[in-house]
Amino acid sequence: MTFVPMMWVVWSAIVVITAALYLYRSSLTKDEEDQIFLDDSFSHEKTAQAAIIAKVSKVEPILKVALWLVALGTLFVIGYYVYDIVSQFK
Predict the structure, then answer these.
(1) DSSP symbol at 15
(2) 56 CB neighbour count, 10 Å cutoff
(3) What is residue 63's predicted lDDT score, i.e. its pLDDT?
(4) In this predicted structure, what is the pLDDT of residue 35?
């Protein structure tokens, strides 16, 4: 396999992984409440919200790394094609 199709496959895989992480995070946060009940009778709600926050906190660093990889991959793809255009005009 040549370089260009492999470059697109790697870039596409990173984008798909990033999209899957976004979907996973949104599925986690759909049950998150905007208000917190401070009464002791709602301690089960408080623990459920804490569990959601803990899961989201684990996903956030991975999502940031994936976003940086997508940005770097996009810059690499654009740079490759700019270099290719410039080298064709020499």
Answers:
(1) H
(2) 15
(3) 95
(4) 65
Q: Where are the domains of the chain?
A: 3-32+46-88
pTM value? 0.80
List CB contacts of 59: < 8 A, sequence separation 6 or more: 21, 24, 25, 28
Kindly report the three-state secondary structure assignment for every residue of 17-61: HHHHHHHHHHHHHCCCCCCCCCCHHHHHHHHHHHHHHHHHHHHHH
Please report, for residues 36, 54, 59, 61, the alpha-carbon distance to residue 48 in angstroms, rounded to integers and kept in the order given. Answer: 11, 10, 17, 21
The first and second tokens of residue 60, run together, are 């956030």
d(C-alpha 13, C-alpha 71), whole Å: 13
**Which residue do the tokens 């260009």 mark?**
4
